[in-house]
C-alpha cells in the first residue's frame, strides 16, 4: 500500500510491520557535483591565464575561491548522498536496513535510532501549502537518513506507520 508518492520520494507499506522508503536526492546532488567540477575547472583556467602573463594576485584569489567552492560543493554532494537512499524499516525484527543499488549496505537496530524528526527544507522552491519537510531519523553514531519529504498532511500517514513500528515521530502540526 502506497503511503506517499511525490517528486522527492516514495513510501509504501508491505504488511503491518514493514515500511519501504526511497528518496534518491540525485537531482540536487548532480547539481552540486556539476558546480564542484565547474569551480575546479575555473581554478585551472585562472592558473593558465596567470601563466600566460595575467595578473598573479587576481589569479591567486580566483584560484583560491574556485578551490574553496569546489571543495564545499563536493562536501555537500557527499553529505546529501549519505543521507538519501532506499530504506526498509522492519518492525518485526526491529531494524532499519539501508540499500544502495539494490544491495543492503547497512543494518541498524531501532535501539540505535536516537531521534525521529521533521525538518523544514527551506531550499525547496516548490511550495505546497507551506515549505515541505524531511522526515528523517538520526542514529546514535551521527548518521542521518532521510525517509520521506512532503507537506505535513502528506507525511501524516508515514508518521502514523512509523509510530506503529515503535519509532515515534513528532506529530505533524496542521495535519488533518
What's this entry about, in short?
The chain has 176 residues and is α+β, with helices and mostly antiparallel strands.
Main features:
single chain, 176 residues, 3 helices
List the helices and strands and how they pair.
Blueprint (H helix, E strand, L loop, with lengths): L1 E4 L4 E4 L4 E6 L2 H26 L4 H28 L1 E6 L4 E6 L2 E7 L3 E8 L12 E7 L4 E7 L1 H14 L11
Antiparallel strand pairs: 1-2, 2-3, 3-4, 4-5, 5-6, 7-8, 8-9
| Low-confidence runs of at least 5 consecutive residues | none
Strand content bin: 25-35%
- The second-level CATH architecture of the largest domain is Roll
CATH fold-type name of the largest domain: PH-domain like
SS-based structural class? alpha+beta
CATH class of the largest domain: Mainly Beta
Tally of strands: 9
Q: Give me the number of helical elements.
A: 3
Specify Rg, calculated over alpha carbons.
Answer: 21 Å
Mean pLDDT: 87
Global geometry: elongated
Strand order of the largest sheet: 1-2-3-4-5-6
Helix content: 25-40%
Give an overview of the whole structure:
The structure is a single chain. This protein is an alpha+beta fold and 176 residues long. 39% of the residues lie in helices and 31% in strands. The strands form two sheets. A six-stranded antiparallel beta sheet has the order 1-2-3-4-5-6. The protein has a three-stranded antiparallel beta sheet with strand order 7-8-9, covered by helices on one side. The longest helix has 28 residues, at 56-83. The chain is elongated and about 70 Å long.
